[in-house]
Amino acid sequence: MERAIAELQQGFLSPAQIAASRAHMGLDTQLIRDGSYFLVEIDGLLAGCGGWSARATLFGGDASAGRDAAMLDPARDAARIRAMYTDPAFARRGVGRRIIALCEAAAAAAGFGRTEMAATLAGLPLYEACGYGVVERFEAVAPDGVPVPLVRMEKPLHRHSR
């Protein structure tokens, strides 16, 4: 995760924003406890990770303030795509798309009709290519006062009936 934050955000965020983003990014271990976090390996190496959540928190790791573990209502709310990271050595090799597909399938199986996320600027092209639309742009302000730009995105899930 650290390498993904440090390397893949270059060109999208300033060095101060990259440093500040660590206050917002990282793993929320609730995803692991909920069994909704996926790892992708290539040749025995961890290539990427990411998950989905039926809880209210939109983004943020264990160290983030303001997380909300309340359960979402699949009939009303969007499932959350969370904590997506690709090792820079495996970027642009389909890892992120695979994780998104796993998350969307699991969220649909749990009854959700749509997903949403808070995307980094670096992740925006991938998520748009996967069918996500921009809902709003906003800033998460780190404890040191540095604003980190994020993009709230959403996608309807198409459930196929048999």
From TrEMBL:
Molecular functions per Gene Ontology: acyltransferase activity, transferring groups other than amino-acyl groups
Q: Which Pfam families match?
A: Acetyltransf_1
Start and end of every N-acetyltransferase domain? Answer: 1-158
List the PANTHER family hit by this protein, alphabetically.
ACETYLTRANSFERASE, AMINOALKYLPHOSPHONATE N-ACETYLTRANSFERASE-RELATED-RELATED
Keywords for the protein's UniProt record, in alphabetical order: Acyltransferase, Transferase
According to UniProt, the name of this protein is N-acetyltransferase
Keyword Acyltransferase carried by entry? yes
InterPro entries, per database record: Acyl_CoA_acyltransferase, Bact_Acetyltransf, GNAT_dom
Q: Which organism is it from?
A: Rhizorhabdus dicambivorans
